[in-house]
Amino acid sequence: MKSLTISDSVTLTTLSNEEYHGCVCCIAPNGEFTVLKEDIRPGFSTFQMIRNDIIKKIAPCENSKVEPLKTELPSNYISIINDREEVAVNKIKSSLHCWGTNVTPMGQATFNFIHKTHPNCRWNGSNIEVMGITVAPPYLPENCIGTDQRALERIRRVIEKFQERIQKQKSC
User: Fold this and answer.
1) Tens of pLDDT along 31-49?
2) Which of 118, 132, 140, 146 is the most exposed place for a label (fewest CB within 10 A)?
3) CATH of 8-60, one of 1.10.287.180, 2.30.30.100, 3.40.640.10, 3.30.565.10
């Protein structure tokens, strides 16, 4: 098969004799597919993703009506990338308190479940602390300790609900 390069204007014929016309705008790094861009009217384009293993023939497209791909980067692209990086780093930093160290996968899953309804929960070593209640390993309702009875019952119910979901998933 003829080698394609980005921005080639081509007609691709498949094994089922379907023809696709357009400008090559993407070739998958693994070589599994090619994406063609075809302009349908000014400012509007369609994109066809075609698996390379079904391409029978590649021919140059003589009367291509495809505008060339715009590959210029905006003048402020470095600041755009830096801003995106900063947002991503801040998001990770703000969620660090949600990752337990040296805890079991079940402990982390229990924390994640509690955190959905009580985002103020935190790890304290291998214990989960929420609403003045401490949940110790193995993170079962009977491992909850605290003086506030209402909060204690609430967290026990949340953990019971989590345990029920785990049991339901295991039975399916």
Assistant:
1) 889 999 988 888 788 999 9
2) 132
3) 2.30.30.100
